[in-house]
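Discussion board: Methods & Data

I've been asked by a reviewer to show the raw model output for two of the constructs in my manuscript, not just the figures. I'm not sure how much to include, so I'm pasting the format here to get opinions. Each protein appears as its amino acid sequence followed by a line of discrete structure tokens. Is this the kind of thing reviewers expect to see in a supplement, or should I convert it first? Here is construct A:
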Amino acid sequence: MSEQATGSLLRELRTKAGLTQEYLAKTLSVSRPKYTAIETGRTELSRTEIKKLADLYEISPTEIVEGRLALSDDFELDCIDEIAQDDENDIIPREVNPKVNIAKLQNILLYVLGKVGARPNVGETVLYKLLYFIDFDYYEKTGRSITGLSYVKNHYGPTPVREFSHIVQAMREAGVLEVVETPYFSHLQKKYLPAKNADLSSLSADEIKHIDTELERLGYKSANELTELSHKDTPWIAAKQNKRIDYQLAMYRTDDTSVRDYVDEL
């Protein structure tokens, strides 16, 4: 094991996920100084700590030990965009591999929750589906994601990758977001509630308009209704179970979920 390489990788992963050293120290059941020593390459990790970190960041223990990420089968260069051409009159620059801007995502989340978070129907499942449709509908129209989040296919529809939960935890620790459980029919519903107003300076007017339109269109639907709608969406249908959903497949949607007016573009 190269402690320096491992520490550098862990620092990079933590920063990208928007987590604090204090949070990681608690996760590993070590002191804050001990975790700082890990990131600076001054101490070794135990097997248990390696396993916890691998599970947290959804990577292999080998990657932790070697201090570098392996290239996955669906790896794409971050800097590459491509031109999508469905026909000679329809050319849209596509963002191939959207990346999360943590500060922007946090403020989008606060904005969405400020609009609909208190509604009885909006629990965690509904929130996940709203974010999915906000992103994939915008991608279909513009070739770009608003939040940069990636989503995976599961039985109940699209779910943000684990990075989202890390960001939510960081927001809770910062006191800008509350997560509560409230009775909802026969079960407890997990709700996310904003503790401060969103700063929308990083969003364009078009992005804000799009989010408002999506919330007006979908924000009153139940979890079952949004799950059923997502199951009709080409990107979700084409994805493998528990694998990431390809944004580019939003360009091949059917009338069930398409939001782009192709006729007006001819």
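Construct B, same format:
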Amino acid sequence: MRAELISFARRSVRKVIGRPIFGRSILIYHRIANADFDPWSIAVSPEVFERQLARLRNKTVLPLQEFGRLHTRNRLPRNAVAITFDDGYACNALVAAPMLEAFGYPATFFIVSDAIVRSEEFWWDQLEHIFHAPEFDYRIAVRLLASRFGDGLGDPRHPDREPHAGFLDLWKRLRGRSTDEQRQYLDNLRKQIGLKKSTRPTHRPMTEAELRTLAANPLFEIGGHTATHPSLTTLPAAEQEREIISGSRFLEGILKTRIRSFAYPFGDWGKLARDIVANAGFECAVIVENRRVGLQDNRFELPRRQVIN
């Protein structure tokens, strides 16, 4: 079971990179923070991030839009790199942005618009917080899943032996649920175990004011990342279109600027999502894949390498 779940986790995050950082690459970050529990390797400490930025001094660090245009014209420098961040964690604005500015590096921040409105932790962070709380009872979590979704997890005792496997089991089954179903499940789980809902400063999304400040910096671009961060490939066409377009339109409304870049949540995409993005007027879109950008890559399927701590 453990090997199967770890394999699933690796496929979900795709591949990651450590060293070196290659040219003609788009880098992806999520959190710049110290993390005690990070099964997806999406947190990079501020100290490591600074060292990684220093290693880019021999690269041509380009804004994502310029990177995409030069790629389309087959004029991309061999040492070109673009920097991107997904989701919209507050640490992007408070920690990463000042460090990027100190180096003079441009970056694109892909924002989940609903997170700006609700100001609560992303559902996967809420699940992690619950999972590690002293009040947490895995058997209650399993029973609640079964009662709400008819979705059993098999042997409820294995998390006592394999803690990561228990978390990944729950995450896997919530991942394909609607945003409302995820919230209802987590709220009910907290109620049943007697845990109060809270938002940790270390895990919160950025506020609207922080987003505005970030967007006002000419080094930085704000990109679309859907309204609620679903796996687009699990949704019907109309819902994919609503998620893709409404999230970016919301950002355009508060920032008074056009949203030109898009990132597919979880890196999940298909021809339908790609066509919606292209027809909606975006100029480029990015996926998650551990390789350089090649001549064959469509500008709505540009691969990104995830950078690890």
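Answer (T.O., handling editor elsewhere):
This is acceptable in a supplement if you add a one-line summary per construct. For B, something like: The two ends are 27 Å apart (CA to CA).
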